[in-house]
Amino acid sequence: MSLNWITPADRLRSLPPYVFARLDELKANARAQGVDLIDLGMGNPDGATPAPIVEAACSALQDAKNHGYPPFEGTASFRKAITDWYRRRYGVNLDPDGEALPLLGSKEGLTHLALAYINPGDVVLVPSPSYPPHFRGPLIAGGEIYPLILKAEQDWLIDLAAIPDRIAERAKILYFNYPSNPTTATAPREFFEEVVAFARHYQILLVHDQAYAELAFDGYQPTSLLEIPGAKEIGVEFHTLSKTYNMAGWRVGFVVGNRHVIQGLRTLKTNLDYGIFAALQTAAETALQLPDKYLVEVQDRYRTRRDFLLKGLGELGWSIPTPKATMYLWIPCPPGTGSTDFALSILQKTGVVVTPGNAFGAGGEGYVRISLIADCDRLGEALDRFRQSNIRFDLPTIAI
Ligand SMILES: Cc1ncc(COP(=O)(O)O)c(C=O)c1O
Asked: What pTM does this model have?
């Protein structure tokens, strides 16, 4: 029997088409034709999780007390490890019993926060381009997105002065993310101070995504929203172990900050999930207690790749600013070429997968993102293919 008459809920129809899904289809076709794809599309770290974390998980797995449902609010010791880590990294003091909540990855939490706090019709300020859950979560919740278009000439920082008063007065939440995916932009401390003042003035909840703060280079130290005086009264910050510790598949993240907001998210999650497998929370504690040499290793890996690729692309005539953080390069398309056409053209001519900037919202049009998720040998192969195909020029228009 066909179930064609069952239609998905309206909230699913409100979502813009998923460019990644179309890209996946094209990748599958290319693979089926025997193309040796170099996939620099997703932000999926290619390294192994550090051995002490894997060892901690193995021994925690042997312990039967970890085999039942974990506590809804996460284990007390993981929450304490989170707040200890925040004190060490950012000098921020947090109460492990109300100002920190483990998550099944920060994507889960970012989206569930929208469900916990956004009513249909609520205005949500979201930069464009941005990490898709920052707008897809609010859309699923029925929110009205007011896109804050970011521009290269403003260093991809949000232009708070450009937000009309009538919008700021209606806005309930502002999502933002520095160091940024996809633009790689970083924000100075003064910017965070301005955002906090703005949010306090208009009574807007600040949701800052700190996913890439540990992947910073050349001595740059990103700012945590919670370092700013008064931020905890109006904000929360999401973090993840996925990038810092190569743990994307483990699904471990957390949110810290305003206790009232965290309590709301916790109430929602109590109705949806049971949290992270307790053995993995033990391993995650180990991750947060690792000596800094592990951070330096991961930073070195991405910095080396960044420099290698920037040099090679520079020789091909692509001038790209050097990112101070993240695991990406954000590259302008040749004049007159759209993101999708450019990404598809690269895929078809070279078998290299990059992400079209418009996958991150209309503000990403005119750019593509390259993830630094392959070693320099493989990146060198990508450069050779670019060189041979003269990819910069002669771009056909391809309909997606
Ligand atoms: C800005 C940003 N936040 C969060 C995430 C997701 O992290 P997690 O693996 O914890 O869900 C990503 C993943 O690419 C990201 O780019």
From this structure: 0.95
